[in-house]
Amino acid sequence: MIYITGDTHGDLNRFKHPMFRKIKKKDTLIICGDFGFIWDSGKKEQKVLKWLGKRRYDVLFADGVNENFTELEKYPIEDFCGGKTRKISGKLRHLMRGYVFYIADKRVLAFGGGENLLQQEDFDLAKKSLEKVGNKVDYIISHEPPTQLAELLTMKTMETENQSYFLDEINRITDYERWFFGKHHINKIVANKYFALFDNIVKSDYDPTKKG
């Protein structure tokens, strides 16, 4: 089973919340950007990363905008579930942008970053990855949402920037069931397809139309 949550911003208490106890061995937790635990490579940080890597479930994260990319890029790149990851510690990995991963029998496109961090090469890689699976995935994991969702959540017209263009194009060319993102620090489901997440945690197949 895949569980998904929003930005963690280096807050270890998030992982100690009772709702995390329902995540079982062999399950996967995915964080939608702004992981925030990789910052200075100090002893305290390494101890925390080691603790996260020893969870009974896989902990995977897309990058956001509040990351120390210099430190993050020091970690080795490894193949994982059909895509490329940075191996941080034990079961803790960074899902690199533009790859489609096969997790729990689901196809998951990871497309982290935002605020002009995204480059043409990220989009080109995502397009190639999507073409290999017929432009069809189960879930999209990102930090930013596509423009129409951002405008709906903020009630503001968004300026056209790199991340807006790339995400909008992915939205246009991809057949997917759900899109999960963390940027807006709210817990809100739109049209049963778009999941804005912050401190909530949901099963990837959660059906908001059903109660109980």
Describe the fold and architecture.
By secondary structure, the chain is α/β, with parallel strands linked by helices. It is 23% helix and 27% strand. Strands 4-5-6-3-2-1-13 form a seven-stranded mixed β-sheet. Strands 7-8-9-10-12-11 form a six-stranded mixed β-sheet. A hairpin with a 2-residue loop joins strand 5 (83-89) and strand 6 (92-95). The longest helix is centred in the middle third of the chain and has 13 residues, at 120-132. It is globular and about 45 Å long. The two termini are 18 Å apart.
Q: Care to give the gist of this entry?
A:
The protein is an alpha/beta fold. It has helices at 43-53, 69-72, 120-132, 147-154, 162-173; strands spanning 2-5, 28-32, 58-62, 77-80, 83-89, 92-95, 99-103, 106-111, 139-142, 178-181, 188-190, 194-196, 201-203. The protein has a 7-stranded mixed sheet with strand order 4-5-6-3-2-1-13.
